[in-house]
């Protein structure tokens, strides 16, 4: 592997830590901070330059377009899309206000498309490097295994946020083109201004991104168990599908509140007046628990793993 390749992955950097005793502690800390910032930036550039990542974002952006066109065609004769508008998809409200396409698109992508994309990126984070033979070179850098793992997780979480915003912005654009915009009616029946609606749309997008932190940690843990990126991605996506199937079986109702996907659609409560916080808090707490458990498991595995690739 050439020096240029290593520099592009952050294994060799212009930021070099000095030998002990040559600099003041504050200077050493500053250089370490600069190095870790460079490592994180390189990981982001590497992730978002991959054709796979761009393809995933393109698919996510296409979902709101397809939903918007389908609703527009269905209602072209003046008929209604049906439904009471109380569900998380808000699909019956889209023709009245294009902003509801944002909420509908997030509800449509959250059960499968968004977590699948996160599973692919997280599952490939460590296993993909091992499979490509670059993991050892990344560990040549003075970041250490713990900081490299944290950098990988931060990169996956950044992708979570970007992917969610791509869905929201695509939906907002399509909604503005195909449908009218203006003040909107909440699930509770109260009126809020368009500006406040935009604020809630942004808050919902952030909540959806936060709802994927558990999946990101799970995928990162799976990625530390194998040297095959494809196996790690397939396993993570398979676990996502399995958990969501189990979440629909009535006989498992006692266990379902502990599944990471159980409270995903609770973001709909942000469109109530006043906002219902109970399920939202449960969702965020559950995601934090999954992130802590599987993040710790990933750390324990990665810091003791024999790196041979």
SS-based class = mainly alpha
What distance separates the N and C termini? 13 Å
Strand order of the largest sheet: 1-2
| Elements, N to C (H/E) | HHHHHHHEEHHHH
* Cα gyration radius (Å): 22 Å
The main pleated sheet reads as:
2 strands, antiparallel
Q: Give the proportion of residues in helices.
A: 55-70%
Taking pLDDT < 50 over at least 5 consecutive residues as the criterion, the unreliable ranges are 1-7, 10-18, 83-88
Which outline best applies? globular
Counted by DSSP, the helix tally is 11
* SS strand fraction: under 5%
Mean of residue pLDDT values: 83
Strands, total number? 2
Describe the structure.
The chain is mostly helical. Helix content is 64%, strand content 1%. It contains eleven helices and two strands; from the N terminus they run αααααααββαααα. The chain has helices at 3-9, 25-49, 51-74, 100-109, 113-132, 135-138, 144-178, 194-210, 213-223, 229-246, 278-304, and strands at residues 184-185, 191-192. Strands 1-2 form a two-stranded antiparallel ribbon. Helix 5 packs antiparallel against helix 10 (229-246). The chain is globular. Residues 1-7, 10-18 and 83-88 have low confidence and may be disordered.
